[in-house]
Amino acid sequence: MDVKKRPLKKSLKGRSVYKPSAPAVEQAARVLLCLGESPYFKMRLTEICNQVGIHKSKGHSILNALKQFGFVEKDPQTKTYSLGPALIFLSRHVLDNLYYPDIVAPFLEDLAKETSETALFGLIYGEHLLVVGKREGNQNLGFGIRLGHRFHITLGAHGKAIVAFMPEADREKILAKKRVYFHGLDVSQLNPKRLRDELTKCRELGYAQDIGEVTTGVNFVSAPVFGVEEKIIGCIILIGTFPESLIDQYGRKTADIARQVSYKLGADVKTLYKR
After folding, report:
1. Residue 9: pLDDT band with limits 50, 70, 90
2. Residue 64 maps to which CATH number?
3. Model-level pTM greater than 0.70?
C-alpha cells in the first residue's frame, strides 16, 4: 500500500493551511513506509532521513522510539536499520481476520493441488496488489512470495487481467501513464499495440498470461475477481515453471476458480465476461 501526502490546500494568499494533527506520528509512519518500500532490507540513517525529508536528529529519535517497541531493528555493526518483528504480529492479526482469505482458501488449495504450482489471491489496494492468500501445490518447489507482499497493479499477467476488466475510462487512464509494467519491470519493453490486443483477448478468455517477461523461466496466468455490484477487487494468480503448452489449460482453470470466488463474494458471474 502506498501512502501519499494529502494534497496541500492553498489559502487565498497561496500559503498552505494543511498541518499534520500529529507530526511525530506522521513522520514515524513515513519512516516505516520508507523502510518497507526500499529495495534494500537495511538502510542507513542518512538515507532514511533524505527520503523522508527530516533532520538526522529527528530521524534518530524516531528510529530509537520505534526500536523500543520492536517496530525497527538496528544492526550495531553496520549501523543500519530494518523493519522489526513487531510488525509481523500486527500484520498477521490483520491478515488473519480478513474475510476474503477464508473464502478464497479452499479454491486456492484446489488450484494449487490440481496444477502442482503456486496459487495466490491478491486484493487491489491503491496502485498495488496485496497478496492475502497463498497455497503451494508442490512443497519441494515454491516461490518466496509471502502474505502481505505487494505487486504493482500493472505488473505482468495480473496487471493485464485487472486492467482488461476495468471500466473503459479507468482503463484508459492507466494506459496513458508512462510507468506501467505489463511487459516486465523494464518499461522500455512495453509494446502498446500488443498490450491492447492482450487486453482484448483477456476479456474474451477470462484470463491473462505472462510468459517469462516478469521473471525469466517463470510463467504466470491470472484472472480477475469481482465483488458485489461486479466491482473488480483483485485476482487469482497461478505461478510456476510449467511449459507454455499448459498455459491455456491452466489459464482456463484459473479463470474458472476466479468465477467461483466472484460468485461467493456476491458478483453476478453471468454478466462478468460480456463487457
Report:
1. very low
2. 1.10.10.10
3. no
